[in-house]
Hints:
The structure is a single chain. By secondary structure, the chain is an alpha+beta fold. The chain has helices at residues 2-35, 140-152, 181-195; strands spanning 37-44, 56-58, 60-61, 65-67, 79-86, 92-98, 108-116, 123-127, 132-134, 158-165, 168-176, 179-180. Strands 3-1-10-11-12 form a 5-stranded antiparallel sheet. A 5-stranded antiparallel sheet has the order 4-8-7-5-6, with no helix packed on it. A hairpin with a 5-residue loop joins strand 5 (79-86) and strand 6 (92-98). It is flat, with a radius of gyration of 21 Å. The model is unreliable at 48-52 (pLDDT under 50).
Amino acid sequence: MILSKFILPLFLVMCFAQWFVTGRMVFQHEDVLKTGTAFSFKTAPIDPNDPFRGKYVYLNYDFTEVVADSIQLWHQGDKVFVTIKKNNEGFAIPDKIHKEAPVSETNYVQATISFVSNDGSKKMGILYPFDRFYVEEFVAPMAETVYVESQIDSTNTSFALVKIKKGQAVIEDVFINDTSIIQIVKERMNKEVINK
Length: 196
């Protein structure tokens, strides 16, 4: 009897906690999109033998190395904070690496060290946490095809527009030669419908 008195209140608390956590995640995501700083992360070719992975386009980035003052403190697999800046072409590049979230910066992301050089160059590789651009299921296969084709043609420039704010990062869109990949896919799909 005593147990049954607590079941309903515990269930309600559990439901509220789930709604709160989910709502907070959605709010943070939308806040980063609205108020975060936009950076264009230039993409790099992906392994053409890597199969399509689902409802998203897998992205590989061009500028993923950072030079540290000393590499003694860093190890492959470490979680780090990387401040981001723009290069002369306007693309995002890693600036500095930190063990803790930088207090005086807002344009940083949490990343993972992919390698630490042992050739004296003090270079480290960075794996960004935003390597998937999610799209609607019916669009995903063609978006993947468009993206892979753009990577094969070296005259194309492709980049992910990523909003960053205090360690949070959200991909807003992927562009090929300044045109949204979604727009390219829709145009191709419309042509296919017309040609049928």
